[in-house]
């Protein structure tokens, strides 16, 4: 069983910063990519940032230049540093572990955290 534990959400004023963390626990051989997605009521979940096992990164257009994703391979943890936050960044942020292998010949599976709420006040 794989469990993703997110932390770091909360309330912040516009222009402020927050750092989200997500640790992956369980019997894991490797993780292809880790990322953060966000969702607001009535809208589809959207990519915020992702990082592959080769450290390639991908950001949503609305967060480029403000958010930074980083990964600690030893701890199976991914971080999202969010700067210059805007009210439109308010959402539930979900951590994802993508292409998780439990063994060398395993089929990759995706796992999701339960989400952490980020609220940016104007």
Question: Which properties best describe this structure?
Answer:
single chain; 122 residues; mainly beta; four-stranded antiparallel beta sheet
Could you characterize the architecture of this molecule?
This protein is an all-beta fold. It is 0% helix and 57% strand. The protein has no helices and eleven strands. Strands 2, 4, 5, 6, 9, 10 and 11 form a seven-stranded mixed beta sheet that branches. A four-stranded antiparallel beta sheet has the order 1-3-8-7, with no helix packed on it. A hairpin with a 7-residue loop joins β9 and β10.
Total helices: the number is 0
Count every beta strand, where a strand is a DSSP E run of 2 or more residues: 11
Unreliable spans are none
Mean pLDDT value: 95
**Which H/E pattern describes the elements?**
EEEEEEEEEEE
* Radius of gyration, taken over Cα atoms and rounded to an integer in Å: 14 Å
Alpha-beta content class: mainly beta
List the topology elements:
Blueprint: E1 3-7, E2 10-13, E3 18-25, E4 30-39, E5 46-52, E6 57-59, E7 67-72, E8 77-82, E9 91-101, E10 109-112, E11 116-121
Quick description:
This protein has no helices and eleven strands. By secondary structure, it is mainly β.
């Amino acid at each position: 069983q794989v469990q993703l534990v997110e932390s770091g959400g909360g309330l912040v004023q516009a222009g402020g910063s927050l750092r989200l963390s997500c640790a992956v626990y369980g019997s894991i051989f490797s993780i292809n990519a880790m990322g953060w997605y966000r969702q607001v009521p009535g809208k589809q979940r959207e990519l915020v940032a992702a990082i592959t096992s080769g450290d390639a990164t991908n950001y949503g257009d609305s967060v480029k230049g403000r958010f930074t994703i980083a990964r600690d391979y030893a701890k199976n943890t991914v971080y999202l540093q969010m700067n210059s936050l805007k009210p439109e960044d308010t959402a539930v942020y979900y951590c994802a572990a993508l292409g998780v292998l439990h063994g060398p010949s395993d089929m990759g599976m995706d796992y999701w955290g339960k989400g952490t709420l980020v609220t940016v006040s104007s």
